[in-house]
Amino acid sequence: MTVLPALPATGCRTAPVLRERGQREVFCGLTGIIWLHRKMQDAFFLVVGSRTCAHLLQSAAGVMIFAEPRFGTAILEEKDLAGLADANTELDREVARLLARRPDIRQLFLVGSCPSEVIKLDLQRAAERLTVIHAPHVRVLNYSGSGIETTFTQGEDACLAAMVPALPSTEARELLLVGALPDVVEDQALDLLARLGVGPVRCLPARRSGDLPSVGPNTRFILAQPFLGDTHAALMRRGAQPIAAPFPFGAEGTTRWLAAIAAEFGVPADRFAAVTDGPRARAERAVAQVAERLRGKSVFFMPDSQLEVPLARFLTRECGMTAVEIGTPYLHAEIMGPELDLIAAGPTISEGQDVDRQLDRVRAARPDLTVCGLGLANPLESEGLSTKWAIELVFTPVHMYEQAADLASLFARPLRRRALLGAAQEAAE
After folding, report:
1. How many angstroms from the chain centroid is the CA of residue 261?
2. Average pLDDT over residues 359-375
3. What is the rounded CA–CA span in Å between residue 380 and residue 363?
4. Domains of the chain by range and CATH?
5. In the chain, fewer beta carbons within 10 Å around the N or the C end?
6. Do strands 387-389 and 369-372 pair parallel, antiparallel, or not at all (unpaired)?
7. What SS3 state is found at 341?
8. Do residues 300 and 284 lie in contact, with contact meaning Cβ atoms separated by under 8 Å?
9. pLDDT by residue (tens digit) across 316-346?
10. 90 compared with 173, residue with greater pLDDT
11. Residues with Cβ within 8 Å of residue 368, at least 6 apart in sequence
12. What share of the chain in percent tops pLDDT 70?
């Protein structure tokens, strides 16, 4: 029989939320292309943007100039921005050249950027026009990756939400896993679900367009990533029903995520225990070893990736840390409710950002660890504060049992580095 840790006497679901609307430090939504193009093996992401957009993607992906990634940039020149050229005609020409050169492409995403939005280039209409031209070999969709109003993980949310209306319909009772996971992590999740007897199981996004899921009123879906609010809403508009659960970070989060699925699909308790008790115990032992460096330490989350709430739950419940403030760009009450129930009352819960005010609170609290974006990490390090780059938590496999200790290690490393630097400084003096 699987016994889960008790809920805290008072959780944070009903805690007051500090809502801030000021200057923000966020990364561009185009960044999501870096993990999406690896996941979707016959898709191509064509950013309609500037040379700055192209340089961002090349730098973030670490792709050398002679590589053939599944993304590119249709660069808007000065004549496009000034309205001296028909951007749609040029876009049609570039898409035709791309598809002629890359016949393996089955899905083409036109990705909006800050420049294309500023000049009001209608990429939705362009996608519809290009689908007619290139169907049935290629389906063309569009979404915005602009950094004007979004944080970087919303690029994936916008991409998946754009896919939902075009998914086929079905009356079958199926489970849909929603969110891009590294293949090895997705395989672990699918293996556990198969051993539980849950199925059929589909994934969004699928690795290939021929495996895209169908959706209907008997579809039950569960999010694997916490930043998919628009996709959640789009699936519900198609009639699919969500399974509410904490996210599969750490031993407890993974067990509760699987338990919610098992309850929905009527998995017997003895089978659930037989499948999950072994990997759960291994994950708990591995996390406990790493958590020795984290136990009793304080953590402050700046809003960045929308992973902040489930990560705070993991660190406080499984690693013995104390959360000072849990800041997140957007707080989706329905999606984050099960996570907030597990976090004991105490930390400030904040939504949005006024970066100067939040930095004042960081400096006043002087937490042992601050989780923040790249632009804030170095200044805080120079003030003697240990930091963790939020973006690394998105690019690193951290879900499910087998990655639980790796997740804890990502937070332990900055503290270890600070301790080593302190020891070296003392020795030098």
Report:
1. 20
2. 94
3. 9
4. 17-24+289-428 (3.40.50.1980), 29-150 (3.40.50.1980), 174-276 (3.40.50.1980)
5. C
6. parallel
7. helix
8. no
9. 999 999 999 999 999 999 999 999 999 999 9
10. 173
11. 297, 298, 299, 386, 415
12. 94
